[in-house]
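Input record (Table S2, row 229):
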Amino acid sequence: MSTWANLGLQDSASPLMEQLIFFHDHALLILVMITVLVGYLMFMLFFNSYINRFLLHGQLIEMIWTILPAIILLFIALPSLRLLYLLDEINEPSVTLKSIGHQWYWSYEYSDFNNIEFDSYMIPTNELATDGFRLLDVDNRVVLPMNSQIRILVTAADVIHSWTIPALGVKVDGTPGRLNQTNFFINRPGLFYGQCSEICGANHSFMPIVIESVPVNYFIKWISNNMNS
Ligand code: CUA
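Output record (dinuclear copper ion complex):
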């Protein structure tokens, strides 16, 4: 999760988020190179006399500064498309989770397992444990197995919400009357925090998401305990 003074991306907990970070760094590097070059040229303009006895045209330099930016854009566009299609791929998921946005909480359904369903509310500050995270912890966490392909179906009951987990590289809008799909693969155990990221009303800030990533046998235990009750 994000802690003090972390203004960058969170550490990834899934292969897709790792790829997103690589792409971000790649694009940023190109951006820095362009900014430095353009900055240098603009600075040197201060020392230009704007007078040249022989300069009438410059066909070569115009060819270069027309074609070069197009080639640079290709170096961003092709990896971007690769990522886009990679994010859209569904790889035979072993668990499907349905998350439904409400004003202002999330509810979840494990449709594969006797349709376990529960609501997940933020814990108010005055009820928070001393080791709790303010505006981020919930009463019922989403338990999911690590090292497994997981599919999530996102929708909403009232207005548009957005199911967003930065560490997993997931951000899907929950729209009333629609069922959106995405998938991810959690590659380590731990707690992964997220928040609704679609301005959805007065308590938009107070509908966080907590994913508890556990080994598969723990997940089976959890799911069978909940199926019996
Ligand atoms: Cu739900 Cu913002």
